[in-house]
């Protein structure tokens, strides 16, 4: 039961990080509502496999969550007449890792979060995403590089701000 | 990227995906290549930032009832064994410690080892007499107990928000996360439920009445990543309180009399399997 609880918590945390993209989902309340809906379906995999291979069940549960969210995002993008894998058009400011991750396209975000946040190996992430290992590694490299660039740019902007900005004197 | 190391291999190292042999080979290269060390440090720092940003415990952290990081656990298991795969015998470990002591600088004169052990035993016995025997095993968080006591004090005597004509319908109305069949204890009549602020999330406050017409409260809060913990007793503003965790939920029973709290704890203990099953199915 403890293991189930750990896995369920990790899945919920992964879900919150994945769905809060500042494109379709802008706040934690909306993210929480969507998570509950997807989590109920994905976590059935964990419950069904309580006696079997826990690691494999965990991979299946996360894979199921990713599939459900992709379907959801695709449906929203069709309504919005846009590509569902694109980066969010504009992200809120700030150089935090959370903002950087949200600014990544879904295909990079899900690979990065599966490995870094959910603690899967590259091979397991490839299995969960139903992709070849090389593709997942390539996505991880791109995701990390873009995230590093995003955070560096945000740092530079913050450093440059005091010199460029000034107060207008009003008499 | 440096060009000297395969990015895939660097990432595999950072994400704990290399087997022990490849890992040690990579670490040998790492020692000789400062640029590679910087790159690894950059990716590791990015990993830490991402995990911190989304509330995950850092890798290799002490498990405080939080999420398990199986990569780290697997690696810890590997490093605890020598390279030949055999666990080091205890006698060898003792020899190594003795050798280390021999080369350490000589200690000042003081009580011998036997006297120190005796003094330690006396101090431990005194501490046990003074504070009582420590409870073994995990304990429910004190924040949970405080939140339950506070909710019971503030809300127990107010009218219920959800009547309890049908416990199954009551559970259904509370929504998926809170849909746990209420505990039924002998001598306590379920009146209904209210929503209450828990220690971390919204909780259900089940309200009962005992034979004297006094209200008894049971707060049930869904908690992520919580292990089972035996009841922890306490008192707050004249209320007797007990908090325990299990099946992904935290429970706090609060009443004016110890007997009512004990009845709820006993009911929860008798229904442990039911609770576990209900928690697994409804979440």
Structural class of chain B: alpha+beta
Largest sheet of chain A: none
Question: Biggest interface, and residues per chain?
Answer: A-B, 41 and 42 residues
- C-alpha end-to-end distance of chain B: 44 Å
Q: How would you describe the overall organization of this protein?
A:
The complex is a heterodimer of chains A (171) and B (283). In chain A, 71% of the residues lie in helices and 0% in strands. Chain A is mainly α. In chain A, helix 1 (2-19) crosses helix 2 (28-42), helix 4 packs across helix 7 and helix 7 packs across helix 8 (133-164). Residues 89-93 of chain A have low confidence and may be disordered. In chain B, 46% of the residues lie in helices and 18% in strands. Chain B has a seven-stranded antiparallel β-sheet, sandwiched between helices. In chain B, strand 2 (189-197) and strand 3 form a beta hairpin. Chains A and B meet through helix 1, helix 2, helix 5, helix 6 and helix 8 of A and helix 1, helix 3, helix 4 and helix 10 of B.
SSE order and pairing:
The complex is a heterodimer of chains A (171) and B (283).
Chain A: H1 2-19, H2 28-42, H3 44-48, H4 54-80, H5 97-102, H6 106-116, H7 122-129, H8 133-164
Helix pairs in contact in A: 1-2, 1-4, 2-4, 4-7, 6-7, 6-8, 7-8
Chain B: H1 7-14, H2 20-32, H3 34-53, H4 70-79, H5 90-103, H6 113-131, H7 142-155, E1 162-163, H8 167-173, E2 189-197, E3 202-209, E4 215-222, E5 229-236, E6 239-246, E7 249-255, H9 258-270, H10 272-282
Antiparallel strand pairs in B: 1-2, 2-3, 3-4, 4-7, 5-6, 6-7
Helix pairs in contact in B: 1-3
């Amino acid at each position: 039961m403890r293991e189930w609880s750990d896995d369920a918590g990790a899945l919920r945390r992964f879900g919150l990080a994945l769905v809060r993209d500042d494109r379709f989902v802008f706040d934690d309340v909306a993210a929480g509502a969507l998570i509950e809906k997807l989590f109920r379906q994905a976590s059935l995999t964990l419950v069904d496999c309580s006696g079997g291979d826990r690691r494999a069940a965990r991979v299946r549960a996360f894979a199921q969550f990713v599939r459900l969210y992709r379907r959801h995002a695709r449906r929203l993008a069709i309504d919005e007449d846009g590509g569902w894998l694109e980066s969010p058009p504009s992200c809120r400011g700030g150089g935090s890792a959370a903002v950087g991750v949200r600014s990544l396209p879904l295909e990079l975000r899900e690979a990065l979060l599966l490995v870094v946040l959910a603690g899967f190996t590259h091979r397991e992430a490839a299995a969960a995403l139903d992709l070849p290992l090389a593709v997942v590694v390539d996505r991880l490299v791109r995701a990390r590089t873009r995230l590093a660039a995003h955070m560096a740019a945000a740092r530079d902007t913050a450093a440059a701000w005091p010199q460029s900005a000034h107060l207008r004197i009003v008499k | 990227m440096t060009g000297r190391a395969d990015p895939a291999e660097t990432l595999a190292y950072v994400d704990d995906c290399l087997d022990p042999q490849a890992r040690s080979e990579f670490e040998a290269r790492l020692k000789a290549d400062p640029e590679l060390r910087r790159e690894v440090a950059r990716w590791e720092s990015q990993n830490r930032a991402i995990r911190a940003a989304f509330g995950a415990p850092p890798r290799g952290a002490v498990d405080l009832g939080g999420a398990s990081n199986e990569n780290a656990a697997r690696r810890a298991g590997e490093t605890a064994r020598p390279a030949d795969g055999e666990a080091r015998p205890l006698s060898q470990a003792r020899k190594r410690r003795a050798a280390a002591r021999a080369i350490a600088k000589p200690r000042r004169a003081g009580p011998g080892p036997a006297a120190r052990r005796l003094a330690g035993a006396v101090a431990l016995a005194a501490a046990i007499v003074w504070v009582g025997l420590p409870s073994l095993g995990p304990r429910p968080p004190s924040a949970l107990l405080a939140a339950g006591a506070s909710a019971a004090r503030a809300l127990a005597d107010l009218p219920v928000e959800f009547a309890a004509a049908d416990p199954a319908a009551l559970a259904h109305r509370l929504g998926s996360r809170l849909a746990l069949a209420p505990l039924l204890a002998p001598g306590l009549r379920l009146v209904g439920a209210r929503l209450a602020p828990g220690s971390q999330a919204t909780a259900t406050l089940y309200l009962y009445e005992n034979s004297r017409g006094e209200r008894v409260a049971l707060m049930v809060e869904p908690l992520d990543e919580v292990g089972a913990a035996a009841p922890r007793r306490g008192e707050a503003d004249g209320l007797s309180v007990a908090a325990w965790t299990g099946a992904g939920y935290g429970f706090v029973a609060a009443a004016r009399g110890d007997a009512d709290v004990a009845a709820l704890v006993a009911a929860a203990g008798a229904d442990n399997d039911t609770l576990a099953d209900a928690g697994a199915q409804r979440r």
